[in-house]
Amino acid sequence: MDHSKIRERSLRQLLEDNFKVARHCRKLAENIEDASLKYYFQNVASRRSQFAMEIAEEISYYGGKEPYMSSTSYERNRMEQGMDDQASAVRKALKINKDSLELYQNALCQIHEGSCREILLRHKAYIENGIFELRSIKTLLKYVPTSTEGSKERVN
After folding, report:
1. CA distance 135 to 143
2. How many Å apart are CA 64 and CA 103, to the nearest integer?
């Protein structure tokens, strides 16, 4: 396969991944009651949608035509299972970001054009920072008392 096909395939995978992550983060923001986590996931969703648009521009620049983006492939109407608490939502987001980071690393191994590579490096750095933040949030959630634990302490 020639280099342009490999580049386009990698960019399309990243485009799809960014839309999926943005959609997932929006769903998490809807289901979480904590205002700060809701705001965090809304910002991540917005940023990942922006990344998808940047990648779409790169595909159209190198390919000469606008990429086809099917809205049905990104739409899932089933509810997230296991998202009962904030900790499980953060764990799921962490897993999704790690998978996304792996896709970016694979794409960077195959794409060598300067401007495209620079965009991917910027996206990858944001995702790495997001993984660091999610790990910190996960650690902090371990030490936040839940309402049921607080009521048990008052009873004793």
Report:
1. 13
2. 24
Pairwise CA distance, residues 99 & 121, whole Å: 16
Cα–Cα distance, 120 to 72 (Å, whole number): 25
Q: What sign results for the dihedral spanned by CA atoms 21, 10, 116, 111?
A: positive
Instruction: Quote the crossing angle between the two packed helices 114-143 and 86-110, to the nearest 10°.
Output: 160
How many of the other CB atoms lie within 10 Å of CB of 25? Answer: 25
Per-residue pLDDT tens for 75-84?
454 444 445 6
| Rounded Cα distance, 38 and 121, in Å | 27
pTM higher than 0.90: no
